[in-house]
Amino acid sequence: MPRLDFFPYDGRIPKGEQLRLKVTKSLEGAEGSDHVIALTDVYTGSRDFEDAGDAKKKMREWVGKEPRFSGHVALYEFEAWLLPYWADIKALSGHSKAAPGLNPESVNHMKPPSHHIKEMFRDR
């Protein structure tokens, strides 16, 4: 059974050689990962990517031909990736708010997932 190891970043994904080195290090050795999945948002605050396709292309170029690497991109709100884990978010926040929707595409764009999550932690 594959093991999942999470390495969250406070900010944008590493770029260029820095991403390649992090992926390579994660795959090395007896305790290395079987596969690395990098998840980023298109909108990093510094116009790193034109769109989702460009983000995937750049991550692939930065990492190289490593077959054990996959780049994934959130086109709109990165926080939408948290919606399937709403029960965990409720437990962490101590809030009882119902999920705004489990399908990120069904969440109201006038109140994106980050606003729902922010409210839960602010109301504690």
Keyphrases for this structure?
single chain, alpha+beta, 2 domains, two-stranded parallel sheet, 2 strands, 34% helix, 10% strand, globular
3D architecture notes:
The protein has 2 domains: 59 residues, no CATH class; 44 residues, no CATH class. The protein is built from 4 helices and 2 strands, in the order H-E-H-E-H-H. Helix 1 crosses helix 2. The N and C termini lie far apart (37 Å).
The percentage helix is 25-40%
Strand content: 5-15%
- How many strands, what sense, and barrel or not for the largest sheet? 2 strands, parallel
Please tally the β strands and state the result.
Answer: 2
First-last Cα distance: 37 Å
Oligomer: single chain
Low-confidence stretches: none
Structural class by SSE content = alpha+beta
Shape: globular
- Strands across the major sheet, in which order? 1-2
Q: What count of domains describes the coordinates?
A: 2
- Rg estimate, integer Å: 16 Å
> Helix count?
4
Question: Average pLDDT value?
Answer: 82
Return the string of H and E elements.
Answer: HEHEHH
Question: Helices, strands, pairings?
Answer:
Blueprint: H1 16-27, E1 36-41, H2 52-63, E2 69-74, H3 86-93, H4 113-122
Parallel strand pairs: 1-2
Helix pairs in contact: 1-2
